[in-house]
Amino acid sequence: MSSKFVHLHNHSEYSMLDGAARLKDMVARSEELGMGALGVTDHGNMFGAYEFYKAARNSPVKPIIGLEAYLTPKTHRSERKRVQWGDGTGDDVSAKGAYTHMTIWAEDTAGMHNLFRLSSMSSLEGFFYKPRADRELLNRYAKGLIATTGCPSGEVQTYLRLGHYDEAIASAAEFRDIFGANNFYVELMDHGLEIENKVRDGLLRIAKDLNLPLVATNDSHYVRAEDAEDHDTLLCVSSGSNKDTPNRFKFDGNGYYLRPPEEMLALFADVPEACSNTLAIAERCNISFAEGTGTYMPQFPVPAGESEASWFIKEVHRGLAERFPDGIPEYATTQAEYEEDVIIGKGYAGYFLVVADFINWAKANGIRVGPGRGSGAGSMCAYAMKITD
After folding, report:
1. Could you give the CA distance from residue 158 to residue 86 in angstroms, rounded to a whole number?
2. pLDDT digit string, tens, across residues 153-192
3. CA 7, CA 333: separation in Å to the nearest integer?
4. Over the stretch 189-202, which tens digit does the pLDDT of each residue have?
5. What is the largest distance, in Å, between two alpha-carbon atoms of the chain?
6. 105 φ, ψ (degrees, to nearest 5)
7. For position 319, what pLDDT does the model report?
8. What pairs with residue 38 in β-bridges?
9. Which of 46, 103, 164, 177 can pair with 159 through a Cys bridge, CB separation 3.0 to 4.6 Å?
10. What is the pLDDT of residue 142?
């Protein structure tokens, strides 16, 4: 790494109408600034991870794959309810008790897979305003992950804002035990916000009391400082507001861009180890995506003694018999057999079985489906399996 600081906390355009930074522009700017790594932690999802990896892999900038996770406030992810932290006046700056935030990065490829699983289960099982994880999911998928206390909307910081130091340090200790002492950091940010200043001393105290490392991050929603006005316009679009709308959603503070290393070092001059630790984390994080190694089609459950290919052929011919009850015309059989060879040869037999399964389930349950489009939808096999009509 060529720098004493690397950006480890960014939100790309994949945070819908939140970030105004294109991935290739972020990578190019990082390279221009001489930074050896860049981290992207989108809000609540991993949708941009692979595109980010592709944008950075041919540059000297190492891609650090991460997630700004939403956590349930000490409740099970299945519980769809808000939790009152204090007296009900501004208890939680982001969601009034529905969730808190946590920054997580993948240390290795296995950890990245765990992060994908954590993100998926948060959506499938924990969605309440946002996709949320709970302690159980963190414990299940902690291997290969590096986490922090997160932004000012983190659980630890929420307790600190309320003046509940004992609860804050207990929470930090619990997260340390989940991820491991060397894998949990106290995160510091400085955008000139009151809520950041309010918790800074408490965070430093927790780091000292629990012997936890510090890490400095920057919440970057656009690439350059001069992009701030464009980003503010984007926020107006997302909230349906005008620039002069009273109390509209906008970012307070400043510095939500890819800050150069010298700016970060100056901001955290009193805790230089926090900047050095961004480099230490970046050096630890090494991931890769498997590319060009085959297909990743879902495996369709077939009866004993059958393969996907053999069962696909039987389903097609069963469907043809239903479509043509007075006898299957020769042209239909000839066309179907030709298509079967192509579909099986390309490895798509299981795919047709899966699509037929959910399309026919939808039809049986009164859910409308589209007519289909393209050569696959226009095939005799799709017609026989009632994927299309």
Report:
1. 10
2. 999 999 999 999 999 999 999 999 999 999 999 999 999 8
3. 60
4. 999 888 899 999 99
5. 85
6. -125, 150
7. 97
8. 7, 63
9. 164
10. 98
Rounded Cα–Cα distance for residues 49 and 12 (Å): 10
Mean pLDDT, residues 100-115: 97
Question: Which of 103, 99, 112 lies closest to 68, judged by CA?
Answer: 103
Cβ atoms 222, 154 nearer than 8 A: no
Residue with tokens 């579909």: 343
Phi, psi of 102 (to 5 degrees): -150, 135
3 pLDDT higher than 70 = no
Q: Give pLDDT, residue 6.
A: 63
- Rg, the chain, Cα only: 26
What's the mean pLDDT when you consider all of the chain?
A: 89
**Res 76: pLDDT:** 94
In Å, how far are 2, 46, 328, 358 from 11, measured between CA atoms?
23, 11, 57, 35
Q: Given its phi and psi angles, is residue 151 left (phi above 0), alpha (psi -120 to 50 degrees) or beta?
A: beta
pLDDT, residue 13, reads 41
Q: What percentage of residues in the chain have a pLDDT greater than 90?
A: 69
Q: Tokens for 91, please give them.
A: 């208890």
